[in-house]
Design brief:
The structure is a single chain. By secondary structure, the protein is α/β, with parallel strands linked by helices. It has 2 domains: 419 residues, 3-Layer(aba) Sandwich (Alkaline Phosphatase, subunit A); 78 residues, Arylsulfatase, C-terminal domain (2-Layer Sandwich), CATH 3.30.1120. It contains 11 helices and 22 strands. A 10-stranded mixed sheet has the order 7-6-5-4-12-1-13-14-2-15, with helices on both faces. Strands 17-18-19-22 form a 4-stranded antiparallel sheet, covered by helices on one side. A two-stranded parallel ribbon has the order 3-16. Helix 5 packs parallel to helix 9. It is globular, with a radius of gyration of 22 Å. About 3% of the residues have low confidence. Bound molecules: 2-acetamido-2-deoxy-6-O-sulfo-beta-D-galactopyranose and calcium ion (CA). The site of calcium ion (CA) has 6 residues, from loops. Calcium ion binds next to loops.
């Protein structure tokens, strides 16, 4: 254990002392529980609280009506792994090599010595748990994990007391649940093997055995077949441990509720990372056909159900008033992300990214401007906020709320915006840097958005995504052109230069 972590662990044994300056000093039990519900690939426009008309998400709407609805909340990146990295470490992922979309056999990307968002809560005496999609690597080195033993390091090394996770994503092997760093329901006589380069002899693949598939890939996703769906990567064995996609939402929601129940007597932090509506979209039978938009819409309804279950549980346990619930998404939406699931054919007038341009993978707002809700009934006044905010700030913001001192030199990009998150005013960030799938950067300040020139295609046909890459400056006035339709860089050379320089400064120096 590193010395910083050791010191913090010592401090964590005296949380009341640590909290002495906070408003929770008299009554440490009044510290609020925090449940962070993190959707996967659900866009700003996918939720009825943000204006979706073709789809109704009543539980999310209820959450929105009892809290603050942010209209300018961002994930730190337009894809999953870097967004989650930034969320947990308080560091922009583009500062760190190896934080791109992780393979299912990637080693732990956030190393044990790293101070994380979960550590903030642990240092304040909270019980901490993560349930759902992980996608931040597991074990020491890529490809060398022993999937059949203790897969370590893992969530327990970066601040989580409890974990029940999918190692990577629904479309990546291994297709098993991992609880407290052990595969669930594994038969030792049928061990799991994982490879991202070559197949195991005699094992069918989506490419060679399409007759075995119940859902066909549209691009990629043609390696090992699990539950009639071909995935990214190869695996064999672990028959008794393999998940059934139609049950994932129910399984992880049950685990989230069980964590809440078993933690109800002390403050807890739950990071509940749902897998809806990432591909493959295979919602449970009671959601099939319910949205009229095919599996993608049905998966959004299933997500809404998970949210409802959490809210009901909190109510039933009498924890409603003492729990902050935050809902957001790891990146913007995508319609066809690699399976023929009719998402495109049945989309109709629905606009997953709302009025924003681009989507998942993109530098345009659709890539990172995602749903953002926070409720704390009785404490946070309901409303709408258009302050510029980012998930990278959760670490510093909750450290402030709980009066936990963050060690020097960690979480370099995380800023405290507690007042704004709690809807007490404040304009949020002055500047926010964002990254797309090619790691090209953009910077915005609430009004202006500058996308730096960068390599890579402007458009991806497979996913129908405008990446936003161009080999020249782009500047958009978000206050008059929320859809980023008109590049006004040439007409505004001073603003363009200012933002370019600011971006360079932030790249070179963490202090902003
Ligand atoms: C892409 C996958 C996509 C999705 C994404 C990660 C292909 C062709 N596409 O490479 O389906 O898995 O990675 O999504 O393989 S994320 O939300 O976890 O970042
Ligand atoms: Ca995602």
């Amino acid at each position: 254990m590193s010395s910083i972590k050791h010191f913090l662990t010592l401090m964590a044994t005296m949380p009341v002392g640590l909290l002495s300056q906070s408003s929770f000093a008299q009554n440490p039990n009044a510290r609020p529980n925090v449940v962070f519900i993190y959707a996967d690939d659900i866009g700003f426009g996918d939720l009825s609280c943000n204006g979706a008309k073709t789809i109704k998400t009543p539980n999310v709407e209820m959450l929105a009506s009892q809290g603050v609805r942010f209209t300018n909340m961002h994930s730190a990146a337009a894809t999953c792994t870097p967004s989650r990295y930034a969320l947990l470490t308080g560091e922009y992922a583009w500062r760190k090599q190896g934080t791109g979309i992780a393979a299912g056999n990637a080693g732990s990307i956030i190393r044990p010595e790293r101070y994380t968002l979960a550590d903030v809560f642990k240092n304040a005496g909270y019980r901490t748990g993560v349930v759902g999609k992980w996608h931040l690597g597991l074990g020491d080195k890529t490809g060398t994990q022993d999937w059949n033993g203790h897969i370590t390091p893992g969530p327990s090394d970066i601040g989580f007391d409890y974990s029940f996770i999918l190692a990577a994503t629904g479309d990546r092997v291994p297709c098993v649940y991992v609880e407290d760093e052990h595969i669930v329901n594994l038969d030792p006589k049928d061990p799991v093997f994982v490879d991202y380069e070559k197949n195991f002899e005699g094992e069918p693949t989506g490419k060679l055995n399409p007759e075995l598939l119940k859902m066909h890939p549209s691009h990629g996703h043609d390696n090992s077949i699990v539950n009639g769906i071909s995935r990214i990567g190869f695996m064999k064995g672990g028959k008794s441990a393999l998940w059934k996609d139609e049950e994932i939402a129910e399984r992880i929601t049950d685990k989230a509720l069980a964590f809440i129940e078993s933690s109800k007597d002390k403050p807890f932090f739950l990071y509940f990372a749902t897998q809806d509506a990432h591909v493959p979209r295979v919602p449970g039978p009671r959601f099939v056909g319910k949205s009229g938009m095919g599996p993608r819409g049905d998966a959004i309804l299933e997500f809404d159900w998970s949210v409802g279950e959490v809210l009901q549980k909190l109510k039933k346990l009498g924890l409603e008033k003492n729990t902050i619930v935050i809902l957001s998404s790891d990146n913007g939406p995508v319609v066809d992300d690699g399976y023929k699931d009719q998402a495109l054919e049945l989309l109709g007038n629905h606009k997953p990214a709302g009025e924003f341009r681009g989507g998942k993978y993109s530098s345009f707002e659709g890539g990172t401007r995602i749903p953002g809700l926070l409720s704390w009934p009785g404490t946070v006044k309901p409303g709408v906020s258009d302050a510029l905010l980012c998930q990278v700030d959760m670490l510093a913001t909750f450290a402030e709320l709980l009066k936990v001192k963050i060690p020097a030199a960690v979480a370099p990009d995380s800023q405290n915006h507690l007042d704004t998150w709690l809807n007490k005013g404040g304009k949020g960030r002055d500047y926010l840097v964002l990254q797309n799938v090619q790691n090209n950067l953009s910077i915005e300040n609430g009004k202006w958005k500058y996308i730096a020139p960068g390599p890579g295609p402007a458009y991806a046909k497979e996913t129908n995504t405008e990446y936003g890459n161009l080999n020249k400056d782009q500047l958009y006035n978000l206050s008059t052109d929320r859809g980023e339709k008109i590049n006004v860089a040439e007409q505004n050379p001073t603003i363009t230069a200012e933002l370019r320089e600011r971006l360079e400064k932030i790249k070179a120096n963490n202090k902003q």
